[in-house]
Amino acid sequence: MFKFVSHSENETIDFACKLASKLKNGDLIVLSGNLGSGKTRFTQGILKNFGLEDDISSPTFTIVNEHHSGNTNIYHFDVYRLQDEDEFYAIGGEEYLSNGICIIEWGEIIESILPKDYIKVIFERDPENENNRILNFEVHGDRLLPIIKEVFESENT
């Protein structure tokens, strides 16, 4: 597991932007954490890398927001309102997974049907400083591990 402590919304955005610079179509990021823990700012950072930072909105009621930049499609899901994996299949969710970069908030709801390779980011508020966020990165599968290592190594230099 990799851990990043963000001291501000801008640090969260910048870190996500660095990660996004390494992503390609077919990559999947799952965001997990309470309301107000930084998931939307992280998504904003991913979109910033593609020049889409002003295009951010929560897909809570639409389930998925589609963003397009050049040859890259970014699909931002909020599956909080889904009851189970069947509802994800019903909206054609699995088709999105291979057609762009996918960001799935509350992805633990459908975790059993996700591909083997993805990055899960667990957001927590820092109990000692209410402005800080602790981002724990779990890498599932082997394909995305070099990306996370590279991002964290560049952060520490």
Explain what this protein looks like in three dimensions.
By secondary structure, the protein is α/β, with parallel strands linked by helices. The protein has a domain at 24-112: Rossmann fold. The protein is built from five helices and seven strands. The chain has helices at 9-20, 39-49, 85-90, 93-97, 145-155; strands at 2-6, 28-32, 64-69, 72-78, 101-105, 118-126, 129-140. The chain has a seven-stranded mixed beta sheet with strand order 1-7-6-2-5-4-3, covered by helices on one side.
SS element count, helices: 5
By secondary-structure content and strand pairing, the structural class works out as alpha/beta
In percent terms, what proportion of residues is strand? 25-35%
Q: Which CATH C-level class of the domain at 24-112 is it?
A: Alpha Beta
Query: Can you tell me the residue ranges where pLDDT is under 50 for at least 5 consecutive residues?
Result: none
What is the gist of this entry?
By secondary structure, this protein is of the alpha/beta class.
Task: Break the fold down into its secondary structure elements and pairings.
Blueprint: E1 2-6, H1 9-20, E2 28-32, H2 39-49, E3 64-69, E4 72-78, H3 85-90, H4 93-97, E5 101-105, E6 118-126, E7 129-140, H5 145-155
Parallel strand pairs: 2-5, 2-6, 4-5
Antiparallel strand pairs: 1-7, 3-4, 6-7
Helix pairs in contact: 1-2
Jot down its keywords.
globular, Rossmann fold, alpha/beta, 5 helices, 7-stranded mixed beta sheet
